[in-house]
Amino acid sequence: NAGVMQNPRHLVRRRGQEARLRCSPMKGHSHVYWYRQLPEEGLKFMVYLQKENIIDESGMPKERFSAEFPKEGPSILRIQQVVRGDSAAYFCASSPRGTGGLTEAFFGQGTRLTVV
Amino acid sequence: QKEVEQNSGPLSVPEGAIASLNCTYSDRGSQSFFWYRQYSGKSPELIMSIYSNGDKEDGRFTAQLNKASQYVSLLIRDSQPSDSATYLCAVTLSGGYQKVTFGTGTKLQVIP
User: Fold this and answer.
1) Is residue A49 a contact partner of residue A105, using CB atoms and an 8 Å limit?
2) Cβ(B106)–Cβ(B7) under 8 Å?
3) DSSP letter string over B17-83?
4) Counting C-beta atoms within 10 Å of the first and last residue's C-beta, which end of chain A has fewer, N or C?
5) A98: DSSP letter
6) Which of A22, A19, A8, A7 is nearest to A86 (CA)?
7) CB–CB of B105 and A105 under 8 A?
8) B51: chain A residues, CB-CB within 8 Å
9) Which residues of chain B make contact with A56, given a CB cutoff of 8 A?
10) For A62-104, what is each residue's pLDDT tens digit?
11) Considering only CA atoms, which of A65, A72, A27, A33 is closest in space to residue A49?
12) B18 touches chain A (CB under 8 A)
């Protein structure tokens, strides 16, 4: 059973370009979370999705950032017109249906975005 | 009040000692509690989960949960330098979606 897969592992973008980060959850997991982490800082929640639904996007900047988790395919975090301040590690986590104790979330290896 | 609170540390303990990491949460209806370890530059790794009051032991790790006081702790016995990392507490909020919410983490330094 493959773990949470994120790609690319490293992404370099020039200011003004678009960044697309992909996350394939573990098999059987229908909840996906995206987090951002700056160096030497904690995880900052961005968005929580289930298949075809955004459940909580309270941590996502109102502009330039969007996320989706389609019925088929990976979850995508999209950052338009990137700026240097977007440089960070972006982690995706997935968990099974939130029933009983089945809520353990597992992380992917992250995408390290560098904006030059 | 933050949903999940941890002391950021660093917490320094000598090698071989017991490291005690604490976490409090605000949602009285929370049902699931987790500890993650994150090495610098790496992704968080789940090390313990606990769902009922009391202690749960796994090797050198013991998770303790007290729902009445709304705190969860992690004890690391015989601490090793390789345990030096940031430890994240996570809690599943009550409600239909049971969103997992993280604290900001406690940095642990084990001194050889």
Assistant:
1) no
2) yes
3) SPEEEEEEES-TT--EEEEEEE-TTS--EEEEEE-SSEEEEETTEEEEEETTTTEEEEEESS--GGG
4) N
5) S
6) A19
7) no
8) 101
9) 97, 99
10) 999 999 999 999 999 999 999 999 999 999 999 886 544 556 8
11) A33
12) no
Residues of A with CB under 8 A from a CB of B: 31, 33, 35, 42-43, 45, 48, 50, 55-56, 91, 93, 95, 98, 101, 103-110
- Is B44 in contact with A104 (Cβ distance < 8 A)? no
User: How far is the C-alpha of B75 from the C-alpha of A25, rounded, in Å?
Assistant: 30
At residue A95, the pLDDT reads 86
Chain mean pLDDT for chain A: 91
- Which residues lie closer than 8 Å to A40 by C-beta, 6 or more apart? none
Over chain B (112 residues), what is each successive 10-residue block's mean pLDDT? 87 97 94 93 93 95 97 97 96 77 93 96
